[in-house]
Amino acid sequence: MNVLRWGTRMIERSHPATLVMAGAALALTFPPTRNLLRSAAVAVASGVIGTIEQIRGAGARFVEEVEDIVAEAKERTETQVYSSLTEDEDHEPGSGEDLENPNPEH
After folding, report:
1. Are the CB atoms for 40 and 31 separated by under 8 Å?
2. Is residue 20 part of a domain?
């Protein structure tokens, strides 16, 4: 009887979290419980890995899209700069056009 009283007093004085942890530790000693928890852990890990792969794929697609946009912007800028430089050269005073047609209006 003393063992039952001791056990009752121990449970009454224990924090509920301690009892939950003790119950979990006791449940883990049984093979079927361990196998069930292992299966659940594998399923969770598989889901996390799949989600990480999807995030990486989306990130890679985003980076590729940004790189394409930057490359296109650079190409446009270079084309515009080249166009403006060639236009400036064509309309400079003293260029070949002025010599060929000195009075274009008359």
Report:
1. no
2. no
